[in-house]
């Protein structure tokens, strides 16, 4: 008779099977991207300060204006397509954001990212007109040298009236493009390539709208640049809150079932005769 001992090796839980954290990206993972966005905001502020100090606004506007006004003020491309049509584009983009918030068009986004983009765009579209309402700066087409009654006064000359109607700084029409920086900040975590495409598209639209308003005599170049800076800085400030993981899973975040560790199997000796 010969006894042989056979034993079963106990198996522990598989580390690879452990569930991944539920929710969006933790706050700290967004910091490098936010740092770059802050750097862009600071660089833009420096460029704007140099532009305003140089006093280039009036020199650029004079390229388009004459003593009897601006020839492109009612031109079909600048007025009809880029001004009136731009409002319809903004309306369409806003609808996309709302639909995406309710029924995700990008399934990898968290609820916080989707609704955060809606809130960010809404605040941007409200903030620019509020600043304009308190501004005493008049539009280029209001200047006496272009057929109006106002004199040129820098928007930095607070409290100094220019003799015109005012309420022109910054550019409201440009905000119908730059307010949608929200697309970039919404998409950059889960869809970085689409986020960059969205950022490029928004910048192109904003520049087109700004040029149209410049050619029409509706705004100085700095008005468009300040609108872009305000919308970008607002988005940078809101970005960390859009990236924080929500307290619970959203519809876009599937819940991972918990994995119960396997109970260890006791060693057993089996006698074989």
TrEMBL record:
Q: Where is the Phosphatidic acid phosphatase type 2/haloperoxidase domain?
A: 118-241
Keyword annotations: Membrane, Transmembrane, Transmembrane helix
KW Transmembrane helix (keyword) present: yes
The regions listed as transmembrane in this protein's record are 37-56, 76-102, 114-131, 164-185, 197-214, 226-245
Q: Does the keyword Transmembrane helix apply?
A: yes
InterPro entries per the UniProt record, alphabetical? PAP2/HPO (IPR000326), PAP2/HPO_sf (IPR036938)
> What is the recorded name of this protein?
Phosphatidic acid phosphatase type 2/haloperoxidase domain-containing protein
């Amino acid at each position: 008779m010969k006894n042989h001992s056979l034993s079963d090796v106990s198996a522990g839980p598989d580390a690879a099977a452990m569930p991944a954290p539920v929710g969006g990206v933790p706050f700290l993972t967004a910091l490098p991207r936010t740092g770059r966005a802050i750097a862009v905001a600071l660089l833009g502020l420096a460029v704007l300060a140099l532009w305003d100090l140089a006093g280039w606004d009036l020199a650029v506007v004079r390229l388009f204006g004459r003593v009897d006004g601006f020839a492109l003020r009612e031109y079909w491309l600048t007025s009809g397509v880029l001004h009136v049509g731009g409002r319809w584009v903004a309306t369409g983009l806003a609808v996309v954001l709302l639909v995406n918030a309710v029924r995700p068009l990008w399934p990898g986004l968290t609820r916080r990212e989707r609704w955060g983009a809606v809130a960010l765009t809404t605040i941007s579209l409200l903030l620019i007109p509020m600043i304009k309402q308190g501004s005493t700066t008049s539009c280029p087409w209001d200047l006496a040298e272009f057929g109006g009654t106002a004199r040129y006064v820098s928007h930095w000359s607070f409290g100094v009236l220019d003799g015109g109607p005012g309420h022109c700084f910054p550019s409201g029409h440009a905000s119908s493009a730059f307010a949608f920086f929200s697309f970039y900040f919404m998409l950059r975590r889960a869809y970085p390539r689409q986020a960059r495409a969205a950022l490029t598209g928004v910048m192109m639209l904003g520049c087109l709208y700004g040029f149209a308003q410049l050619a029409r005599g509706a705004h100085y170049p700095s008005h468009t640049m300040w609108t872009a800076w305000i919308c970008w800085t607002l988005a940078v400030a809101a970005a960390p809150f859009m990236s924080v993981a929500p307290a619970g899973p959203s519809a876009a975040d599937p819940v991972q079932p918990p994995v119960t560790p396997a109970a260890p199997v006791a060693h057993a000796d089996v006698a074989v005769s």
